[in-house]
UniProtKB/TrEMBL annotation:
Lineage: Eukaryota, Viridiplantae, Streptophyta, Embryophyta, Tracheophyta
Native source organism of the sequence: Arabidopsis lyrata subsp. lyrata
InterPro entries linked to this entry: Aquaporin-like, Aquaporin_transptr, MIP, MIP_CS
Protein name: Tonoplast intrinsic protein gamma
GO cellular component, one term: protein storage vacuole
Main location: membrane
Domain of life: Eukaryota
Recorded family membership: Belongs to the MIP/aquaporin (TC 1.A.8) family. TIP (TC 1.A.8.10) subfamily.
Keywords tagged on the record: Acetylation, Membrane, Repeat, Transmembrane, Transmembrane helix, Transport, Vacuole
Length: 251
């Protein structure tokens, strides 16, 4: 069972060179992703003079996030695993694939990366507002909470199937594409309702820079619950029970 694999980690783990390099990679990858994602929203607001969101704007946001995440995961995969998301890190922890201390280090790097990205965007655009995540009219808090759970479940399940699963084989080479695709698809599905964050760091940066905290807890609780459930289910049903140990020469 994965609960037996959960580990706090050694006290010196957070200061080891490999852990610090991994944290730096998470910082850079998250910065890249948020600049592309939030930047696309700011560009849309400038072009439409803060007009209402349109179907074409939703498609543009989905593409920007999908492409940005594809790159962010790709450039960080060989160093940190390319989590770029506290919910992914939490799902990996629940499945026993990362220690608590390293996970906290990743979280700090991801949150800082998002905040710095939003500060850069605000400066580079001449002081334009960085749009924070919020619920659309007619969407209740519980509706958004469930939507974020379901969408993040799909994201973290995809991460497990294509990147974490030790038997993914050649499928691992397309992991960044699959992860980018599921995020883009989920934005098309949920963007008009909750904003389709699926990522506490992505919501945190804009909230800090714009100082907008209305219903912000939804963008933490929903993704963390969805990511944790995905990690638990995949680890219990598809890794621990269906995989045979690989020969040593295959590692």
């Amino acid at each position: 069972m994965p609960i037996r694999n959960i580990a706090v980690g050694r006290p010196d783990e957070a200061t080891r060179p490999d852990a610090l390099k991994a944290a730096l990679a998470e910082f850079i990858s998250t910065l890249i992703f948020v600049v592309a994602g939030s930047g696309s929203g700011m560009a849309f607001n400038k072009l439409t003079e803060n007009g209402a969101t349109t179907p074409s704007g939703l498609v543009a946001a989905a593409l920007a996030h999908a492409f940005g995440l594809f790159v962010a995961v790709s450039v960080g995969a060989n160093i940190s695993g390319g989590h770029v998301n506290p919910a992914v890190t939490f799902g990996a922890f629940i499945g026993g694939n990362i220690t608590l201390l390293r996970g906290i280090l990743y979280w700090i790097a991801q949150l800082l990366g998002s905040v710095v990205a939003c500060l850069i965007l605000k400066f580079a655009t001449g002081g334009l507002a960085v749009p924070a995540f919020g619920l659309s009219a007619g969407v209740g808090v519980l509706n958004a909470f469930v939507f974020e759970i379901v969408m993040t479940f799909g994201l973290v399940y995809t991460v497990y199937a294509t990147a974490i699963d030790p038997k993914n084989g050649s499928l691992g080479t397309i992991a960044p594409i699959a992860i980018g695709f599921i995020v883009g698809a989920n934005i098309l599905a949920g963007g008009a309702f909750s904003g389709a964050s699926m990522n506490p760091a992505v919501a945190f940066g804009p909230a800090v820079v714009s100082w907008t905290w209305t219903n912000h807890w939804v963008y933490w609780a929903g993704p963390l619950v969805g990511g944790g459930i995905a990690g638990l289910i995949y680890e219990v049903f598809f890794i621990n029970t269906t995989h045979e140990q690989l020969p040593t020469t295959d590692y």
